[in-house]
Amino acid sequence: MKTNSNFRTNAITILSFFALLISGAVSAQQSGIKRTDLQKHDLSVPGYETVQAKIDFDAHSAFGKHSHPGEEVIYVLEGSLEYEVEGKGTITLKAGEVLFIPAGVVHAARNNTNAKASELATYIVEKGKPVLVLKK
User: Which residues form the Cupin type-2 domain (predicted)?
Assistant: First the structure.
């Protein structure tokens, strides 16, 4: 009985440690980035939804390579952002400009300026799938 209890305690400790490592890695990658979810709605197409978020970038911050299982439509609200898009190279957008990223295309975003920058991101995704998939 005591052995089983020790095993359970050790297993919980190990799982907690790995959870802390994983959460630390994700938050470190997003340093200087603040995401505010604005809305999420089912679409008239069964099985799909739209998710909209505002992403704020501190000066000289970046969000590493990632993709989305659905389309992403970006509108730069403030400042200037540089996007590295697989197959298209580097694209720099300023406030008022837009970008469409097809499903599954790997991309990254960076604010190379001394000022804050923000984008409005709208995702069209299949329900139940994650909005974001980080790449190594």
Answer: 59-118
